[in-house]
Design goal:
β6 and β7 form a beta hairpin. By secondary structure, the protein is α+β, with helices and mostly antiparallel strands. It folds into 2 domains: 201 residues, Hypothetical protein, domain 2 (Endonuclease III, domain 1), CATH 1.10.340; 116 residues, Alpha-Beta Complex (Nucleoside Triphosphate Pyrophosphohydrolase), CATH 3.90.79.10. α2 packs across α3, α8 crosses α11 and α9 packs across α10. The protein starts with a helix and ends with a strand. It contains 14 helices and 10 strands. Strands 5-1-7-6 form a 4-stranded mixed sheet, covered by helices on one side. The structure holds iron/sulfur cluster.
Length: 335
């Protein structure tokens, strides 16, 4: 593209963004703390799934100081249901570093943000450009797809970063980065790009000519859990600290595959985690199971559950069985 074309593309895209951007809570200010929290939550997670958690998280931890002072279990409790819990742990670790070693001062450049736990090249560039106006381009899945269609070529990662940098508007880098991501999320979508509505239509080499990629088939599996209740408490077990998924989170005790306790389940629900769809059945724990589970598990009253990091599935089950509800802050509570 010529310099004049590049200028024109930037102008057109920013104008489109100004008129069409979604009103998302993390776009209402450029505070680095709230931008950072939103960027971490949005990694591999849909906007719709993040909205509630984002509001709840900022209510509970309104500043980096408050987050740094919290216990990890409290951070995980608020994160419960959002998945990819290593994100919450690293966010918490980074908050402690900022509070203690930088006396609460946020880094201002992408390079300095990258030194913190859980912050890769994309996240560092997003925060530095949005909050501090640094002229660094972002490249996430949405931007990469837009670039490949725009140039009509498949690129290596390195070339994509270079292309993103060439396109970047140096005057409004944060808005331009968000405009590219917004275009990928709402117009230049993976399966059905809306080229007729696209502001970059006249610049685009492919205009949606690329065949949609077939999505990988999702895995399906069935799992069962046991529910044990005593007075107003429920029995939960903790996942191992070295588990690859949801380490240290609390959940209902799992039953061995095929065990049904001979009864109809109390509840059946569907639950999806990453690329797997689960059919979940919950049975009343038998006396023998109760004995086994009680050895490794722990009884929790509703008050204790208020701040417990539950897995998203366990929270969902307890709510469906009316054993958990939302308090005024939206946290899960067992009854
Ligand atoms: S014209 Fe179509 S393919 Fe090209 S960037 Fe726009 S939506 Fe994507």
């Amino acid at each position: 593209m010529t310099a004049a074309q590049l200028r024109s593309l930037r102008r057109v895209l920013l104008r489109w963004y100004d008129a069409n951007r979604r009103d998302l809570p993390w776009r209402r200010n450029r505070n680095p703390y709230s931008v950072w929290v939103s960027e971490i939550m949005l990694q591999q997670t849909r906007v719709a799934a993040v909205l509630d958690h984002y509001a709840r998280f900022l209510r509970r931890f309104p500043t980096v100081k408050a987050l740094a002072a919290a216990r990890e279990s409290s951070v995980l409790a608020i994160w419960s249901g959002l998945g990819y819990y290593h994100r919450a742990r690293r966010l918490h670790q980074a908050a402690k570093l900022i509070a203690r070693e930088r006396r609460g001062k946020f880094p201002r450049t992408a390079e300095d943000w990258s030194d913190l736990p859980g912050i890769g090249r994309y996240t560092a560039a997003a925060i530095a450009s949005i909050s501090f106006g640094e002229a660094v381009a972002v490249l996430d899945g949405n931007v990469e797809r837009v670039l490949q269609r725009l140039y009509g070529q498949l690129h290596t990662k390195q070339t994509s970063w270079q292309r993103a940098d060439i396109l970047l508007d140096r005057e409004r880098p944060g808005d331009f980065n968000q405009a590219m991501m917004e275009l990928g999320a709402t117009i230049c979508t993976p399966r059905a790009p809306q080229c007729l509505r696209c502001p970059l239509n006249t610049f685009c080499k492919s205009r949606g000519a690329e065949q949609p990629r077939r999505q990988a088939a999702r895995k399906r599996t069935a799992i069962s859990y046991a529910l044990a209740r005593r007075d107003s408490s429920v029995l939960l077990v903790q996942r191992p600290a070295n588990a690859s998924l949801m380490a240290g989170m609390w959940e209902l005790p799992a039953l061995a595959p095929g065990v049904t306790n001979g009864d109809a389940p109390l509840l059946q629900v569907r639950h999806s985690i990453t690329d797997t769809d689960y059919r979940v059945a919950v049975f009343t724990a038998s006396p023998d199971q109760l004995h086994d589970f009680a050895t490794n598990g722990q009884w929790f009253t509703h008050r204790q559950c208020e701040r417990l990091p539950l897995t998203g599935l366990t929270r969902k089950v307890l709510r469906r069985l009316s054993l958990a509800s939302k308090d005024s802050a939206g946290e899960s509570i067992c009854h």
